[in-house]
Design a protein that fits this description.
about 90 residues, mainly beta, four-stranded antiparallel beta sheet, about 10% helix, globular
Amino acid sequence: MSTADHHLDGNAFAAVLGEILACEPTTAERICQSCRARHRTGEHLAYGGAGLVLRCPSCGDVAARVVQLPRAQVVEFRGTWVFETATAP
């Protein structure tokens, strides 16, 4: 069996992403891809400019970037992010 036999379309991923991003963002944790430190989003350092850049408080590496375009926001995440969402009992 090939991997094509096990795929869904991107709408399945989009639905899960919508649920994940509905959580409290300041408590999401991130593991830095450079120094492996683990910090909550609210502990990171944010810098403004042409967009918003979030940096690791331990090593200063880029954690995320957000750019506002006329009709969209572009978000880039780096490292491993842990978003905790409430689950139904």
